[in-house]
Design brief:
Blueprint (H helix, E strand, L loop, with lengths): L10 H37 L4 H5 L1 E6 L10 E6 L2 H9 L2 E3 L5 E4 L1 H5 L3 E3 L14 E3 L2 H8 L2 E4 H6 L12 E6 L7 E6 L7 E7 L1 E3 L6 H17 L2
Helix pairs in contact: 1-7
C-alpha cells in the first residue's frame, strides 16, 4: 500500500511560522524565569533591610537583546556589588585589622555614631549621603569629649585637648563578655553614663541572603515555563 500525503500552503512559510513560535516560547520561558530570579534576589535584599542601593545592584540582561529568532536564548542575572552580596550570603566573620570594631548602640546611632560623610577612598559620599561607618575618635571630637580607659578615668587623668573638659568617653571591659569593651559617654561632669558603642575584636555577620536557593527556584520556574510552552 502506498500512502501519499499532501501539504497545502507554502511549506517554507509553515516551517518559518513554527520556528518563530518555538523561538518565542523559549525566549518567554527565559524571560519569565530570569525576571522571577531578579525579583526574588531584590526581594531578599529588601526584606533584610540592606537598602535600595544594594537591592538595585541586582541586574538582568536577556540575550539576544533584539527579538530575532533564536533557539538558544539566554539571560544573565548579575550583581553590581558582588562583594557585598557575597558577604550577606555567606555570613563571614570580620576581624579588626588592629584594635577593635566599633558597634554603635541605639543611643550611639541616635547621636550620629555609625555614619560618616566621607567615602572609603576619601572625599564626600556621592549624592550628599552618608555611609555606615563607626569611629569613636571623630565622634568624640565632635562632642568635645576625650576618650579614656576605665583605669585612666579612675585616676582622673585629663589630656590637654578637650573643648568640653567635663565630657568623656570611658572604655570599660564588658562584664559578661570577656574581650569586649563598652564605650560609656559622660556628656558632662556628674552626668549619667550613656552606652554609645560596644567594641569587639571580631564579629560574625548573620546570613541574610540565600542566593543559591533563589537560583534553584529559578531553575524550577524555567522548567515549568518551558514545559507549559
Amino acid at each position: 500500500m502506498r500512502v501519499v500525503a499532501a501539504v497545502s500552503g507554502n511549506m517554507q512559510a509553515i516551517l518559518d511560522s513554527a520556528a518563530d513560535d518555538i523561538s518565542d516560547a523559549l525566549r518567554a520561558g527565559i524571560e519569565t524565569a530570569s525576571a522571577s530570579l531578579l525579583d526574588e534576589l531584590r526581594g531578599q535584599v529588601r526584606a533584610a533591610g540592606l537598602g535600595t542601593g544594594l537591592e538595585k545592584a541586582w541586574r538582568r540582561e536577556v540575550y539576544p537583546r533584539s527579538r530575532r529568532r533564536t533557539f538558544h536564548p539566554a539571560a544573565l542575572v548579575f550583581s553590581q556589588a558582588p562583594f557585598l552580596h557575597d558577604i550577606f550570603d555567606t555570613g563571614p566573620t570580620i576581624t579588626a585589622r588592629r584594635g577593635f570594631l566599633v558597634v554603635p548602640t541605639r543611643q550611639g546611632e541616635a547621636m550620629g555614631l555609625g555614619k560618616a560623610s566621607s567615602s572609603r577612598k576619601g572625599g564626600a559620599v556621592p549624592g550628599g549621603r552618608t555611609r555606615r561607618y563607626a569611629d569613636l575618635e571623630p565622634f568624640a571630637e565632635r562632642l568635645g569629649a576625650r576618650i579614656v580607659s576605665a583605669t585612666e578615668a579612675q585616676r582622673g587623668r585629663r589630656p590637654s585637648r578637650a573643648s568640653n573638659p567635663g565630657a568623656r568617653i570611658v572604655l570599660m571591659p564588658a562584664r559578661k563578655s570577656p574581650g569586649r569593651l563598652v564605650a560609656l559617654l559622660y556628656a558632662r561632669a556628674g552626668a549619667k553614663p550613656v552606652p554609645v558603642a560596644v567594641l569587639v575584636p571580631q564579629v560574625k555577620l548573620r546570613k541574610r541572603l540565600d542566593i543559591a536557593g533563589a537560583e534553584a527556584r529559578a531553575e524550577v520556574a524555567l522548567t515549568a515555563a518551558l514545559g507549559s510552552a
